[in-house]
Amino acid sequence: MDLRRVCNLTVLLLSLFFVHYKVISGDSTVVFLDSPTRQYLRQSSPQSGSFSASEISAAASVLLGFTPYPTVTAASSSKLNEVLMPNPFDRPRALLLLEVTGAEEFELVADHGESPLSGALRIKVAGNERADIQLIGEDEVSLVSLNEGSSGTECSDKELSEFASWMGGSYIENKSRPLNGELILPTSNGSFMRLHLSERTDREFATSLMLLINKIKQAKKIHQVFTKNEISPAELYTGRFDGIQALQDTYGKEGIAQSGLEVFVTSISKAFNLMQSAYQGQIVGIIAHGDELGFQVKLNYHPSARRLEETETSPDIAKLAEVLFVRRALAWITGIILLIATLLGILFLMNMPLTKDTLLYSNVKLD
C-alpha cells in the first residue's frame, strides 16, 4: 500500500466533504473519484453549474459501459461531455456508489485544491429527486449491495480488533462483557477518536463502518472471480452510511460527529485504494452527501440468448466459484474425451487388417 497515495486521497476527500455552503432546499453534492493510474473523468470542474439527478444517473450508466436513458437531452449530453472523457471504448465498467448522510453541513477545515489527485470532481446536484440509474443494453451487470445483510448484524471483539489494527488504531477489550470495550481510531489530523461501545450510538457507528469496509474488501474477491471468465460483467457496488448522522443526532454537529466524519473518510480512502489496486485502476467512485439525493438502480437489459443469465442482484462468492468450477470441469472432460477419441481413431487406423475394403478406405488403388 502506497502510504503517500492514501494520505493524498484522505486529504482530498476531507476537502471535498468539509464544505460550507448555503443549504438550499433539496440540494446535494456528489464527489467523483477518478483512478490515479487511468483517466476516465476530465480534470477541470464543469462550467455548466449544477447537475440534475438524472444527469448524475446518466454519467453513472456511461461509466458502467451502458447507453444512457433515451430521454437525455442535448443540454444534458453537453454537461456529461464536461465530466466524462470522450473515448467511448475506454470505460471502467466498475463503479462504487456511496451515500453519506450527515456530512452536508460541516464547515471547511482546509481547502486543498492543489491535491495531486486532480481527477476528483465535486458537482452540486439541484432538486430533491432520486437518481435512477437506468442500465439499458445487452451487457450483463453485477449489482452488489454493500449494506445487504448488515442490518442488525453483530460483530465480535476479534473483528473490531482487526479493523482497528487495519486502520492504525487499537481496541481495548472488556473481558467481563463482549462488545463493551473502547475503540481508538486515528483521524486525518493526527489525533484519535475514542468510541465507547457501551454507548449505543458509538457501537452503531463502529460496527456499521466496519461492516461497510469489510463488504468493500469482499468486492476484490468477487472481481477476481469475474476476471477468470471470458466476458466479465459490469460491476456496480452501492452502499449507504448513516453513522455520521447518528453521531450528530446524539452529540450534535460538532466535536465527535466531526471526528467521526474524519474517521469515515480515512477508512474509505484506504478501502478505495485497495479496490484501485485490485481493479488495476479500472474503477471510479461516486460519493453523494446530502439527505435528499439517493441512488436507485433499475435493470432494463436483455442478455444475449447464447449466454446463461447467471448474475443475480447480489452475487455470492461461493456460487460464482461453483459456476466457474462447473465450466472448467466441463471443458476438461470434453477435451479429454476428444483426445481419447482421436488416439483411438489413430490406433484403429494404423492396425486395420489389410483387406480390399481397408485398402480402398486408405486411398490405395488396386488393380
Automatic annotation (TrEMBL):
Q: Where is the signal peptide?
A: 1-26
Pfam families assigned to the protein according to its UniProt record, in alphabetical order = DUF7794
What is one cellular component GO term in this UniProt entry? endomembrane system
A molecular-function term among this protein's GO annotations: ligase activity
Q: Give TM segment ranges.
A: 329-350
Q: Which UniProt keywords apply?
A: Ligase, Membrane, Signal, Transmembrane, Transmembrane helix
Domain called DUF7794: residue spans: 27-289
What domain of life? Eukaryota
Instruction: Indicate what this protein is called per its UniProt record.
Output: Succinyl-CoA ligase
User: Which organism does this sequence originate in?
Assistant: Striga asiatica
